[in-house]
Specification:
Strand content: 15-25%
Number of helices: 7
Number of domains: 3
Order of helices and strands: HHHEEHEHEEEHEEEHE
Oligomer: single chain
CATH class of the largest domain: Mainly Alpha
Strand order of the largest sheet: 4-3-5
Radius of gyration: 34 Å
Largest sheet: 3 strands, parallel
CATH architecture of the largest domain: Orthogonal Bundle
Number of strands: 10
Length: 246
Amino acid sequence: MGKFSDLETFICVCETESFTAAARRLNVGQPAVSKTVARLEQQLNTRLMLRSTHGLRPTDAGQQLYQRAKRILNELAETESLVREGGAGLSGRLRVSSAAVFARIVALPDLTAFLQANPRLGIDLLLDDGNLSLIEEGVDIALCTGSLDDSSFTARKLGEIEQCVMGTPAYFSSAGVPLRPEDLAQHEMVVYQRRSGAENWSFSRHGETRALRFTGANAGQCRRMLARVGAVWIWRHRGRRRAVSQ
């Protein structure tokens, strides 16, 4: 950093128009300031300062050096500040997509604390139960469940979803309790579905997996239907309930 220190000394001399005043500002001896300017003149093979009745003033070459050195040191200070701040937290704007129900249960409870820990970060949260095109929508991060349809994306596992079939005691009392997955075909079902068409329910036991297919309803329909009838397929999140910034 020797050259930067020499430039800082030269800038101070230009602004104070005095070796003595520059030495006081820099908290060094006056001879050290004079030697620094002389060293710069020797390195550049040109005179940088002239004495006048009003004190020291830069030559044309000295004025050019002052302006450029001032800009360089300002940019250096800004760069150091950005690097230090960058290590203290995230910054910029992040566009995140998620299914509405998943976001409400998993992401939103931790979002406030995450933003407080990263005050220079802004988040645009897209809540959509359909199939968003991540590229067309400019999405940086998508919170998804299930398998990854597009292998060109990079995925990171955050937790696990435990799925089960549940119903109200009143419903099972009148309709009977299903003992096998196939019995569900005889029941009134409430299926929360993100995609169009039908939804697959998979049941595993002793290494054997069976899949059943049901027509779904959206989140609003599910809430209304649950109040009066049917069994429902739900999931419980078992992932980490804390925001991760790295």
